[in-house]
Fold this sequence. Notes:
The chain has 159 residues and is an all-alpha fold.
Amino acid sequence: xxxxxxxxxxxxxxxxxxxxxxxxxxxxxxxxxxxxxxxxxxxxxxxxxxxxxxxxxxxxxxxxxxxxxxxxxxxxxxxxxxxxxxxxxxxxxxxxxxxxxxxxxxxxxxxxxxxxxxxxxxxxxxxxxxxxxxxxxxxxxxxxxxxxxxxxxxxxxxx
Length: 159
């Protein structure tokens, strides 16, 4: 299954925008100063133009470095939000079995994709903490995929 695509040519500018916004918000009161507000709005407009994501919010990047690297955050910003598709069991299994072969931004995107397409809200628990969802802590990714399929079918048919 084809995954998300990141336009590498936009990466350095997205990094710059995120850094500039974080610095601006960290050094100033972003709510009261009109100059700061205007500068943030310009950065947000530019970020939305570059990413094509009109829902992206520049303020979400304040203190980004507490959760992830600049590289990961910028790559994540360049990924389109996942959409609902008709995901087959085989496609789901392929995604789960290969999920850890991606960089952090893409892995996070795949987890969001699976949440959107399964209705299950705790997909990271399945992958990283299988004991929390009733599997052995050393379960294989194939076993985890089978559990996700089972739970997705229970969720879909149990509604």
